[in-house]
Structures are given as structure tokens and as C-alpha cells.
Amino acid sequence: MTNEELWQAVLAQIQLNISQANFATWFRGTEISNIKEGTVFVSVPNSFSKEWMENKYNKPIFKTIHELNKEIKEIKYNVEKKLSPSQDIIAKAPSIAADADQMDFQEFKINKDTNLNPRYTFDSFVTGSFNELPHAAAIAVSKNPGSVYNPLFIYGGVGLGKTHLLQSIGNEVIKNFKKKTVRYVSSEKFTSEVVASIKNHEVEAFKEKYRKIDVLIIDDIQFLAGREKTQEEFFNIFNVLYENNKQIIISSDRPPKAINSLAERLRSRFEGGMIADISYPDFETRVAILKTKSQEKGVEFSDEIYQHIASVVQKNIRELEGALNKLIANQTLNNQKPDLETTKIIIKDLLSSPSRVMTPKKIIEAVAEFYDLKEKEILNVSRKKEIVHPRQIAMYLLREELKSSFPFIGRKFSGKDHTTAIHSYKKIVQELIKDKKLEEEIELIKERVLTI
Ligand code: ADP
Ligand code: MG
């Protein structure tokens, strides 16, 4: 049994016994890095994960490993950073998607100059009537960046291929036009760059960097909503690039007109280009996607299995892939192909999978769980240090993710007034500028909220 298989076995076992949310939060990005003289070294992505593994999950992990290999006496957990928080494609991938994305990051390296992940290509992109138009536009743009469809604005729901399509354009351009500068950036990353450049008095250098770009790809632009300063910088960069016939490609989860508090001038700029939407793949296309992905991964399942998955998972291609990965893990573990019955059990939880939206309640629940506190403790007035920080994070998330008003947030927390909410929000924003660890912490909590 290879280290990887051994760890897959552990994960499969653990996954049966804990919630999806916990599994995604604590076990994503973990692997066995080495086994030496009876000690298994497990690498984990961050210190929170390490702490929880040691304190909460060590027993079941040890038990499973020991059953498979009696020589193992001990397990050690080491923090080994593989992903930078900026690679937030992964941050957008809650629960089952975790497995899918994890595989990607082991196999592919993100290009440091362009931020592109080479796994995303047109070759691996399945088309159907649901994405024909954006796909055709993307191909056209990749052949002639800056001259057709500018800006190209692609929108659609979560997990339907926006990032894949955007990055495919970038990868195609760097392949065909060696001299062109391409840069892929998420709106959140862009925002934090703007904030940092202002703070460090490097606004000019920041602008300069962006003005040199030939193809600028900005993912999930809806996150610029409400961030006036960032929008302003983006508008300036946009104009310079546009006037110089540089290509701009944008994605969003909704059309420009539905993005609240997006400056009118930005909106009309977007509407001046090509707007194309990705809808949902039909049943046949879902089956085709599963088959394509299987081929890529070097596995094959029966048609009835593909059809079952395709009938259950309807609105999210990332989840289709996640379901497939679950089957593969099961096959590795049992050394045989799952039959239809097993498949049904394995992906049963997808049927009841909750909607992936954030609500105030979910945020508070996730924050409480994350810090091992009771919801009551977070909501009540207490000045204990170990509670103040989580409470501030909860307030921050209510503001940041749900755009809740400060008076609303204040009331939610045992009738505190809005100045406390403002103070908490600002404090976290400030800390985020210099504290990378906090950024990770919040990413983990956000993922968690989405899996509740
Ligand atoms: P979004 O950005 O819209 O949330 P992604 O681009 O991250 O979605 O896609 C989610 C997952 O599904 C990725 O692993 C991606 O490779 C895969 N995927 C999405 N659309 C397609 C497609 N048309 N063909 C093949 N894989 C796809
Ligand atoms: Mg995306």
C-alpha cells in the first residue's frame, strides 16, 4: 500500500464519521509525507488543522492506520504550506469539491507570473448548449486578444466553469503569443493589492504593473460590489488598457446590471463589450462531462453509474467531479469498482446537500464551531479575550459576505450598538492587511459556512 493509498483509506474512514463541514475544514490538503521507523508524518496545510488533528482526530486516524499497518506506533503532524491563500479557486470549493481541487494542486503548479493554473485548458473543457456562446467567445478572444469582444464578460452560477473558461483563455494566449503579458487575478486578490498599495504608498507602482498587461483576467467581479476605492482603481486601469486595445476578461456570478453598488460607469463599460452566460448542463452533457473527467483520471465506471450521478448532481460541475472523486477513493480503498448500490450510498449525501449560501445564522454557527465555542457565547456580551476575537470575526463576515448593515449587526449581538460593529469590522480589516494567518483563518471559516 502506498502512502497515498494509506491516507485515502484514513480519509474514507474519517469521512464516514464526521460532518462534511468538518471534513472539508480540517482534512483538505492533508497527506502522508513520510513514514519512518514506525512514525507516520502527516503534512497539514495550516496550524489550525494541525491543532485539531492532534487534539480531536488523532485517535481515529491512528486506529485506522494501525489496523492497516501494525508497525505504526505514532503519528506526527507538520504544517507544510503548499497553497497560497491567493489561489482562491480552492477557497471557492466547499465540501466534496475539496477532493477534486486537492488533486489538481498536487499535479499542477500555478504559474507565478500569470497566476494561471495550467490544468485549465480548452481541451479539457466540455461544451454543450449551456455554454456554447461563452465558449465560442472565449476561443475568439484567445485567438485575437484585444480586437474582438472587449471586454468579455462571462457570468453564471457557482461551479459551472467560469474560472476554467477564463483561465483557458489565458493559457491559450501564453501558448500562442509568447510576448504577451497575461495576468489572472481574483477580485479579492485585486482588492487586497489595492489596499496594500495604498498603505505602502506604492499606488503608482501598482498601476504601472497593471498598465503593462496585455490580457487582464479578473474573476468573480461581484466581490468588488461596495468597494469604492477598489472600483475606482479598477476603472482607471480598465480605461488605460481598453484605450490601448488590451484585452479585458471578467467573470461574475450574475450579469452586470444585477451587481449592486457597482459604479454606473463600470457597469456601462462592461455592457459595452460582449456579455455571455453559462447556464446549466443538460443530462447528456453531465454524463459526457463525467466520462471526460474519468478518462482524464484514468478510470472507468459503468454507464448506469454515470447516469445515476448525472441524475443526482444537476447544477454544479464541480460537484459532479467531486462525486466522481469519491467513487475513485472508494475504488482505491476496496480495490474494486463500486456497483450501483454502493454508488448510491457514496453520493447519497449529495442529494441532501444543503444550499451553498451564507446566512447570518450559518456564519455565527460556523464561527462558533470553528473556535469551539457555543453560539450563545459569541452572541453575548463578554470581554473574554478568547471570545472577543471570534465575535469580531463573525461581525466582519456578516458585513463582508452579506453586506449586512452595521445597526443590524449590532442588534444581532445582544443589542450592541452599531459603533461596536463598525469597530469590529475595521479592526479585522486592519489586521488582515498584515496578518496572513488571519486571512487563512477566515478562508477556512468561510468554507465552513458554505458547508453547513
Ligand atoms: P466557477 O468558476 O464557475 O465556480 P469552475 O471553473 O471553478 O467554476 O469549475 C468547477 C469545476 O468544474 C472545475 O474543476 C472545472 O474544471 C470543472 N468544469 C466546469 N465546467 C467544465 C466544463 N465545461 N468541462 C469540463 N470541466 C468543467
Ligand atoms: Mg470561479
From TrEMBL:
Domain note: Domain I is involved in oligomerization and binding regulators, domain II is flexibile and of varying length in different bacteria, domain III forms the AAA+ region, while domain IV binds dsDNA.
Chief place where the protein resides: cytoplasm
Region of interest called Domain IV, binds dsDNA, as start-end residue ranges on this chain: 332-452
InterPro entries from the UniProt entry: AAA+_ATPase, Chromosome_initiator_DnaA, Chromosome_initiator_DnaA-like, DnaA_C, DnaA_dom, DnaA_N_dom, DnaA_N_sf, P-loop_NTPase
Chromosomal replication initiator DnaA C-terminal domain: residues covered: 359-428
SMART domains (alphabetical): AAA, Bac_DnaA_C
UniProt-listed CDD domains: AAA, Bac_DnaA_C
AAA+ ATPase domain location: 148-293
Gene Ontology biological process terms, A to Z: DNA replication initiation; regulation of DNA replication
UniProt: ATP binding residues: 159, 161-163
NCBIfam families registered for this protein in UniProt: DnaA (TIGR00362)
Protein name: Chromosomal replication initiator protein DnaA
Subunit relationships: Oligomerizes as a right-handed, spiral filament on DNA at oriC.
Start and end residues of each stretch annotated as Domain I, interacts with DnaA modulators: 1-83
Keyword Nucleotide-binding attributed: yes
Organism, as annotated: Candidatus Nealsonbacteria bacterium RIFCSPHIGHO2_01_FULL_38_55
